[in-house]
Amino acid sequence: MQQNLGLDDSQIIRKNNVSDTDATAIENAMRECIEEGCQVIFATSWGYMDICEALADEYPDVIFSHGTGYKSNGVNFNNYFGRIYQARYLTGIAAGLKTETNKIGYVAAMGKDNSEVTGGCNAFAMGAYSVNPDCEVYVKVTNSWFDPEGEKQAADALIAEGCDVIGQHCDTPNPQLAAEAAGVFGVGYNSDMSKDAPKAVLTSTVWDWSAYYTWAVENIINGTWTGENYFGGMADGLVGIAPLAEDSSLREPRRPSTLQRQRWSPAGTYLTA
Fold it and tell me: Per the count of CB atoms within 10 A, which of 40, 143, 193, 211 is most buried?
């Protein structure tokens, strides 16, 4: 965004490693941004949402843009997210073509009550099933957006159950590292995790937040900001997939029969344990 719009370093204020469970730290970081003259604050974690809501009322001339949440006021407080399920479907195809055991594991941050995680998991399963109707997706839930040890343990448990491809909706590369250590494969999330586990990662579901940040700041500069929420997709460049591993050796897809297509539903592939 900075490069796209020609902004210099002095115009960007960063507050890093602010715990999204520490309300005081979140508020202090945002107030410091306001005191330093920030006109827009991008709050990049789920736990920042309520503080954005409160401060937006207090500072009507500052724009608070919150990532992954659901609250907004339509004026100076909006939320932004993307159609990550589009990319999930495609990476599910890679998993479905790669599995030999027809068991694919998925480490999920939250369970079926969270639409973001469940929708992505179902899209991943639908992609896998579209090329391999015999496969199933097994899910382990960590109940945390960031739990390095829990994510590793979940992946290890899925591998022990026979899963030979490990997908994920969680923040660390630990599920991919576990896959590599066990000699199986995986699909990363957030960024291209082949940098972390090059022997395991087939591809990754990735975000490019610059697509939104450029759009938002450009509107602010031009005076065309409306306070609307943003929900971009692959066509906007917000979500995508990393390059497929060169040595992935994916097999030919197997199409489901008419009977199998009639019997299958996304819910049937979402197995929690």
Answer: 193
First to last CA, the chain: 41
- Is the whole-model pTM more than 0.90? no
At residue 195, φ and ψ (nearest 5 deg) are -70, -25
Structure tokens at 204: 């990754």
Query: Do 145 and 109 touch, CB atoms closer than 8 A?
Result: yes
Among candidates 78, 220, 23, which has minimal Cα distance to 31? 23
Closest Cα partner for 77 from 269, 228, 222? 228
Tokens of 238: 């917000």
User: pLDDT digit string (tens) for 42-61?
Assistant: 999 989 999 999 999 999 99
Q: Which domains does the chain have, with CATH numbers?
A: 2-82+208-233 (3.40.50.2300), 84-207+243-272 (3.40.50.2300)
Per DSSP bridges, beta strands 136-141 and 77-82 are unpaired
